[in-house]
Structures are given as structure tokens and as C-alpha cells.
Amino acid sequence: MVLELLSLTNPVFKSYTFWAGVLVLKMLAMSMLTAVQRFKTKTFANPEDLMSPKLKVKFDDPNVERVRRAHRNDLENILPFFIVGLLYTLTNPSAFIAINLFRAVGISRIAHTLVYAVVVVPQPARALSFFVALGATAYMALQVILAGAF
Amino acid sequence: MVLELLSLTNPVFKSYTFWAGVLVLKMLAMSMLTAVQRFKTKTFANPEDLMSPKLKVKFDDPNVERVRRAHRNDLENILPFFIVGLLYTLTNPSAFIAINLFRAVGISRIAHTLVYAVVVVPQPARALSFFVALGATAYMALQVILAGAF
Amino acid sequence: MVLELLSLTNPVFKSYTFWAGVLVLKMLAMSMLTAVQRFKTKTFANPEDLMSPKLKVKFDDPNVERVRRAHRNDLENILPFFIVGLLYTLTNPSAFIAINLFRAVGISRIAHTLVYAVVVVPQPARALSFFVALGATAYMALQVILAGAF
Question: What is the pLDDT of residues A111-141, one digit of tens each?
Fold first, then answer.
């Protein structure tokens, strides 16, 4: 049983694997995006990073801080999804529901990054993408709690 | 063997599943708690979030920052527990010890949030709840390292 | 199959388990390092943490902030590695490649902490250690995406 649940022949696990991989790459890309903004605006947080003796450490560039807020929001939301998505897969859920939940999280978190840190889109774009992923993750957490409690 | 270890018929995995689900929900609740404080104190970090043209972005409200520090502390402690708790389960530990370690982490991290970000309780309340979870997580990490090393 | 993949008789999983445990301990040590710097420099972020009525909350000590930046960098890079390393193990990779990737991540993230937060070493020491782990993690993520997509 568990053998099948964590095997790539299980479409739920296959979908989880795909979206988890995509979201890991997306998160790693945030570091690159931060670096781009740091070099563009010459905003470096450590003395050893300063490229010229004329520069000073700086912590308040709005472009750098915006990417860092988007990145922190990923840590707060995508990382809990990783574990709860895996445990949800192990509860042997309906493939239809599970695959669409993983898609919802994956697509809405990519959208969240785009409207927050790439092209700033007025609200409620960011709030909507945030709540779709949060809702799907909370639903999986509830299913996991029920499976563990009874 | 592994079949049984990650099955809900294994009481260790069942307990891990329950507490991981509870702690994911608890972490997602921190976002809601932050939002509540942001609206209460009208502290928004992005220009597109400002509800009125009279408001300006603000980063230093003590109530918002307190919840954000509690949330970051969750990222630093609960997220490593998620992976180490799963790997510890796969080392086939004593059910008595494992289940009580998971309980200790779950209950102490909920207590940590309550005394840090809901009702501020004087020290050493926060330090104690912090160290119970840290100690349990470090013990599991040591067991996992030993299982992987020999 | 999966039975074997997550068993400690699988050398890939054994290596993953070892390095995941080591990196969890390393991350928990960052909290201790932060605490040491907080007490050394008397920099406390919460009123209830102040040891003497003469102290005030402080957020800008460079030694404390340096450790906190190193810790946040761990959250951004080590935590995604934890999930992607596990999923990569479940794709049944070449043991030689997988074990060396895990080693590369483990050793380079320890080096990153040493040159960032323990003894400050001029660049490109930190950049190099950062990119070794990032490259290995991104490679695993790609393999995981391919396994999930086809």
C-alpha cells in the first residue's frame, strides 16, 4: 500500500513530485532575483560584499526589500505545503481532488511571486493568489490531522 | 518494513502525522494573526496594500513585529522538525519515546506562540517552551545522524 | 521498490538521512549562535527579554544581524533541499551521483555558515559555498520535475 503511495506510478505522488520540484526551483529563483536587485541598486548587507570602497552597507532599498518579503512569504507558505502535501499523499486521497489541490498551490504561488516581486499588480491580485494556496494547504492539513487523530 | 513505518497503522507515524498537521495549521494561523495586527495598527509594508491615500508604508509597529518574530521563530524550529520527525519515524524508534517527543514539540511550540504573540507572558515562559522543542528536535536529529552514519 | 528506497539499507537514503540530520543540528545551532551574540552585545528584541531596567530593545546590532542573515539564508536554501533531497531519493538515482550531491550540499552549507557567521572570510568564499549548494539543489529539483512530468 504505502509502497504504491510513494511510487511514481501513483498519479497523486507523481503530481506532488512535479509541483514540489517546480516550487523548489521557484524559491531558489528568489535568491537570484534578490541578487539582481542588490546589484542594480548597489544595496549590500555585508561589508565584505561591497564592490567599491565608496559604498556602505544598506538595508532599506524598497526593490530589494520587496523581493525579500515575497521570498519570506514563500518560506511561510510553500515550506509547510511541502510536508503537508507529502503526508496528504500518504493518506491515500482521491486523485482528482489531490492533483487539483497541488495544481492550485503551484499555480497560485507562482502567480503570487509574479504580482508581488516581478510586475507589481494592484490588490487584490496578491491577496487572491495568497489565499488560494493558503486554503488548499489548510484543507490538506485538516485531512492529515483527521487521518492522524482517528 | 518501510511499508509499515509510513503507514497510519504505525502508531509512531500516526502521531507524527497528527502533530505535523496541527503545527502546519498553527503556522498558517500566524499569517492571519499578522494580518489582524496590520489592519488594527494600519501598518502595511507595500504601497499597493494601503487602504487610504493618507497612509504610508510602515515597518516598525511593535505589535506587528512581535507576531512576525514569533512566525520567524516557527520557520527556524518547526520546519526542521518536520523533516527530522519523518526521518526519525523511518529509523523505527521506540513508540513510547517517539510519540512523547512529537507531543513535546507540538505542545511546546503552541505554548511558545501563545506566550510570545497572543498574551505576552514574562520570561522564562518563552525560553522554556523554546528549549523543550529544541531539545526534542536535537535528540531526534542525533538519532537520525547515528542511523545514517553506521 | 519504494520499500527499499526509503530503507537504511539503501545507501542513497542512508546518506540523505545522515546529511539531513547534520544540517538540522547545524540550523538549530544558529539559534544558539544568535543567543550568544544577543547576550554579548545586550541586544534584545522584546521588552520581556531585557535583563536590566536600564536596557532598551535594540534591533540593529551588526553582530546579531549577521548571524540572523546567515540563519535566514539557511531557511531559504537548506529547507528546500530537505524535501527535494527526499523526493530525489525516491526517483531511484545513481548512488554515486546522489551521495556526492548530498555531500556537496552538506559540506558547502557548513562552510557557508563558517565564513558568514563564525569567522568572516572575504568574498568570494561565501558566494562559492552558496552556489555549490544552490547548484546541487537545483539539479535535484530538475530531476524531480522530470520524474514527475513524464
Answer: 999 999 999 999 899 999 999 999 999 999 9
Rounded to the nearest 10°, the torsion over CA B4, B7, B11, B12 is 80
Convert the pLDDT of each residue in B67-125 to its tens digit: 999 999 999 999 999 999 999 999 999 999 999 999 999 999 999 999 999 999 998 99
Question: CB-based burial of residue B58 (10 Å sphere; 0-12 exposed, 13-18 middle, 19+ buried)?
Answer: middle
- Nearest chain A residue to B24 by CA distance is A80
C9-148 topology per CATH: Four Helix Bundle (Hemerythrin (Met), subunit A) (1.20.120)
Contacts of B11 in chain A (CB under 8 A): none
DSSP state string for B86-146: HHHHHT---HHHHHHHHHHHHHHHHHHHIIIIIS---TTHHHHHHHHHHHHHHHHHHHHHH
CB < 8 Å to C15, chain B: 148
Closest CA to C10 of C90, C84, C83: C90
pLDDT of residue A71 exceeding 70, the answer is yes
Are the Cβ atoms of A148 and B71 closer than 8 angstroms?
Answer: no
Using DSSP, state whether C66 is helix, strand or coil: helix
Q: How does pLDDT run across B19-36, given as a tens digit for each residue?
A: 999 999 999 999 999 999
What residues in B contact A83, CB-CB < 8 Å? 20, 24, 79, 82-83, 86
pLDDT value, residue B2:
58
Least CA distance to A78: which residue of chain C? C80
pTM reported for the whole predicted model: 0.96
Q: Contact A1/B8, CB-based, under 8 Å? A: no
**Contact call for C24 and B84, based on CB within 8 A:** yes
With a CB-CB cutoff of 8 Å, which residues 19-38 of chain B face chain A? Answer: 19-22, 24-25, 27-28, 30-31
Domain range list for chain C: 9-148
| Chain B residue closest in CA terms to C30 | B76
Radius of gyration of chain B (CA): 19
Short-list B132, B148, B141, B145, CA closest to B100: B132
pLDDT per residue over A85-112, tens digit each? 999 999 999 999 999 999 999 999 999 9
